[in-house]
Design brief:
23% of the residues lie in helices and 32% in strands. By secondary structure, the chain is an alpha+beta fold. The protein has two domains: 39 residues; 121 residues, K homology (KH) domain (GMP Synthetase, Chain A, domain 3, 2-Layer Sandwich). Strands 4-5-6-9 form a four-stranded mixed beta sheet, with helices on one face. A hairpin with a 7-residue loop joins strand 4 and strand 5. The longest helix has 24 residues. It is globular. It starts with a strand and ends in a 7-residue tail after the last strand.
């Protein structure tokens, strides 16, 4: 697999995924001399973590017949205040469209925690994970009415929180 990156000036890069020819752009963040007009390179690490966790849970769910449409992973990124500039913490929130006591819960959580990006993150980076579960007996997802937000979302009033980093 190859990704081709072209520096376009003004701290802006274009990156092309050669197998699919899909393009993404990066820009330096405002707090690091950039315009903040797109993902920063470190934002892509946070993005990779969240999408990897969701993907491997999707694979595990599909293999077990558990539908995870409506799952949402939110990743917050905190940079170190001291030099060298680096990611200090990736705060992960996983909103699951299944109840907390679903029989496949631990398998899905284990899948998320064993995604390749999890294994690739430096051990000095903190990665606390908070899990949120749909309450039993409530609808799985709701559709938003505006086309620009037409993805399924979990109604947060229908989510209960469990404690802990990783598997709770």
């Amino acid at each position: 697999m190859e990704i081709r990156i072209d520096y376009e000036g003004q701290l802006h890069c274009g990156a092309q995924h050669m197998p699919s020819l899909t393009m993404i752009e990066t820009d330096a963040p405002i707090d690091n001399n950039g315009r903040g007009e797109s993902y920063s390179p470190t934002d892509l690490i946070a993005t990779a973590l969240g999408t990897c966790m969701a993907t491997v849970m999707g694979i595990a769910g599909r293999n077990m017949g558990v539908e995870l449409i409506g799952m949402r992973v939110v990743v917050g990124k905190e940079m170190s205040e001291e030099l060298p500039r680096k990611i200090a913490k990736l705060l992960v929130e996983v909103y699951m469209p299944i109840p907390e006591y679903h029989p496949e819960r631990r398998i899905l959580q284990s899948a998320a925690l064993s995604c390749p990006v999890q294994y690739s993150i430096h051990p000095d980076i903190e990665v606390p994970i908070q899990w949120y579960w749909q309450e039993a007996g409530t609808p799985r997802v709701e559709q938003t009415s505006s086309p620009e937000n037409a993805m399924p979302v979990i109604n947060q009033s229908q989510i209960i929180r469990t404690s802990g980093d990783g598997i709770s």
